[in-house]
Amino acid sequence: MALANELARAKERQQLQEWQANEQKLAESLGPVAKPELTQDVRDRLVVFIAYCKSNNVRHCPARPATCAAFARAEAANGRDPQGIVSLLGAVELLHNYHGLSNPTKTAVVAAALDQIIKIEPPRSWNESDRALWFRLDPEARDIIARHEAERSKALRQAQNRLSDERKRLTAEAGTNSVITETGQPSL
To answer: Based on the structure, what is the number of domains in the chain?
Structure first.
């Protein structure tokens, strides 16, 4: 029995080595890929994720999607704002890209966690069919769209208020420059 188990393990090791060699050939056939820079800002954000992983005795790289989702939910529970959480996950993404690993933050489990954290309704100006598509968008994309929509709405309201103020000013100015007499003729 022990011999059979040893043979099975040897075959598994051989299969793994073969896969790794073939995967390495495929990677080399793609040519050089520029690594993202891990700036000090990215490293500072990674400290938070690495500390979380250490406290939960899990790997930070390569991280599992469930680890990233649980991290996002823990950060939300600790009061971190949604933008901060997205920023931290962005650092995790950069770390994995730097090492040529799959991105664990762009998975269904992380999207579901972010969906619970980032509760954003579709813009009011969107029609019914666009609103239906809204909920199929990535939560980060929804956040970006909502922020830009809010900025656009604010800028539009400010422009409308300036226009209204200018109309009032011009009307008041026109009223002081000419007075209509009872005969309907302007007086000079």
So the answer is: 2
